[in-house]
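Translate sequence into structure tokens.
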Amino acid sequence: MAYDLKGFKFDSTAFFSQEMKDAITAVRVDRPSIVQAEAMARRRRTTLTTNGKLSILATDHPARRVTGVGSESFLMADRLGYLGRVLRVIAASEFDGVMGPTDIIEDLFIMNYLVRQGGGPSFLDNKVIIGCMNRGGLAGAAFEMDDRMTSFTAESMARLGLDGAKIMFRLDIDNPDSLATIDYCAQAISDMNSYGLPTFLEPLPVRKEGVKYPVLKQADELARVAGVASALGDSSMNLWLKLPYAEGYERVANATTLPILMLGGDAKGDPTPTLGEFANGMKAGANVRGALVGRNVLFPGDDDPMAVAMAIQKIVQEGIGADEAVEYLMSVRGQDMDWLSQYLCCDEGCCCGG
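Result follows.
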């Protein structure tokens, strides 16, 4: 079936309103301890995966000063729209989990509390929640490649009962700051190992062009950097890799025995190329175990982030092909747009959360 929006245009504010966002701020001001209490009340999975595969939503781009989507430079800087799209995927779908820095993860805990106060279920129960650690390499900064650990720590993630950490290094062989970042990542992996928690490491070969560091998405380059990444830290037993899809992905999968999650890269505006890449990537090797994807789910042009997420979930968990995923996407878009509002009364004169 050919992809067709059929006149659909997703409006994030129809799912997550300004009043709901304001209710999160009110909790931050008046009852910040709710974050820890909600984290401790969350039911965690007994194992990281239910069948050896994972689909995780990435929400860490604004924390690195990355705010653009396509030609729109500040789309991810609008927290109302951004958080609404994140919640659309995590609260209203079966996506496995979410990865983000401290502010996003804590926003989700607060919203989970407000939903439960309104009589709803915990949408974070049995989800995989991964904390992002290094965001110090701000996009466009002179120190961009010196990417220090500036968000979650291993201790803070253990305290909140999170399920793992995400870190990254970009390898520019002409830039000595790459070595410093690799060293930060090795220490972070060892720190996570001391708590028995997994680390999801994103190693990216890059080459500077002007003020940017585009990723070298060639199978040979990705295979080389996978070998470097697999040996970091005091043990690789809790280590997963996050690697972009490329033609010849079999070569990338064959470079390591570690489990691999694919990433989607820049938002394409049309979800079908991403679905095709992920369907192909899942066939590249037994150690390709899913996707850790952000902008291509959150900003799929005018389409519904929840529907795109669930199509990817079907590819990862059930092994369906790209064409079937497109058909499924179109069949579920726009469903359950009242998922949050049915539990949160945020009209004038009504306290959000019941």
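Note: The domain at 12-332 is CATH 3.20.20.70 (TIM Barrel).
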